[in-house]
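A quick aside before the break. I want you to see a complete sequence-to-structure record at least once, exactly as it would be stored in a machine-readable document. Don't worry about memorizing anything.
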Amino acid sequence: GLSALLLVSAVLEGYASSLTGYIIAFFSSLLAACIITAFTIRTAHLVGLILFGFVIGFLTQAIGITSDLWCYNRTFIFAAFSWSLAAVTMEGISRIVRYKLKSLTDHPLNVLVVLALLGTLPVTLALQDHWKYAKYRPTPGEWMMRQESGLKGACFINQEMPAKSKLEPNEPFWIYYISLAGFAILMQARLPFTELLSLILAAWIMGGISEWMGATAKLWHFRTVAFPPLFLVLGCWPLEFLVIRGLATRMKGSETIQ
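That is the input. The structure line, written in tokens, reads:
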């Protein structure tokens, strides 16, 4: 049902021409991974991953596109549905990774690791010359005017930042990701270190592959063209997944193992 919603929303939003064979194969593999994972977790946990994956996915897209850090040619509800699939898939990947890491010793480094993930944002934003977009964003009026002017059909890939009079401090971006880091610390501070590491690695794997696939199919666009920016994969994805997973585990009756 979730995959059907994703495909229907993508078609209704005008992305049918981007749904090439390899994109459909990719989503099919995600669906298969989700079905396998669903048999290993409680129903409440599965529902939590789907629900909070959608919510965090939607909020992330809203923050990103209004900051001009990435963009869509049209609306992006399908991307929120894809985050639900991604969240369940990352749960499954993390379980495989955790099995491979079982020989590692657990260390009380969870808080430092989450803070390090947050720290990757300014470092990687600066490395790839994205810092100005994280520092400033178009005012709501300027952003809406650009959307209504027909520029949205070409996204912003070849556009420069608006004049300074049409910019405002990009507080929402930093409030959002600092808040995610704070919630991640609160919810994952006592998690076994190997489990935390497996969640982060799963997010890096899923984030890198899916962002590259979507960009090459022109479902969305980055300022780094087809290659996903480092800040998005290394910092944003794990912070978002740690919160999604933390919220899902707090659903009543959401013990991970059936």
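Two observations worth writing down. The longest strand covers residues 136-138. The chain has a mean pLDDT of 85. We'll return to this after the break.
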